Amino acid sequence: MKISESGAIKLGKTLVIADIHLGILGFPDYSIRDRILEVVHSSKAERLVINGDFKHSLGKYELKHVEKIIGEIEEHVSELLLLRGNHDGLLHEIHEVHDFVEVGNATIAHGHKEFEEMRDAGILILAHSHPAVLIKDYISGHKERAWLFGELGGRRIIVMPAFNELCSSTAVNVEKPAGFIFGYVREFEAFTINGFYFGRVIV
């Protein structure tokens, strides 16, 4: 397993990114498509898993634009798997959507809902909460997107940062994050997206 500063996880030949929120500033939204293709090419991944919230709006108007970008991404990978997020209403009308996927001993799901199959995962990879940490100095503070690492009953829990840097984020050292996992696990090790160890946080 390899974690990158882009907010991606690579599991063998599978690359995982989350919380794309395509169209957050309107359509067409080619900049985020280009970032996706950049990390696909640099990682040499063969399969891409988008772990929920591929699009931002729940409306039908955006679907034709989303469908076009899906097609463009599929030209660069052997398989594109879309996992269902809370922003992905109607996405199933243009592409198959899954609740979760298993890659080796890892189970990947968006994190807004819990599924029975997650309980047997050696590693559980979630998203949804857009985790960040608030870093303060003497004058002010700023948020940095972050990875969260925890444990639950011997299983490793990983919460991914949002891939789209324009998304709002939750500073987990001062705010309560969204997602079912935080009802089970409250203590995490936090790393900024560029690999800096922030420390232990209690959510």
TrEMBL record:
Q: What is this protein called?
A: Phosphoesterase
Q: What is the lineage of its organism?
A: Archaea, Methanobacteriati, Methanobacteriota, Archaeoglobi, Archaeoglobales
Tree of life domain: Archaea
Q: What is the species of this protein?
A: Geoglobus acetivorans
Q: Which InterPro entries match?
A: Metallo-depent_PP-like, Pesterase_MJ0037
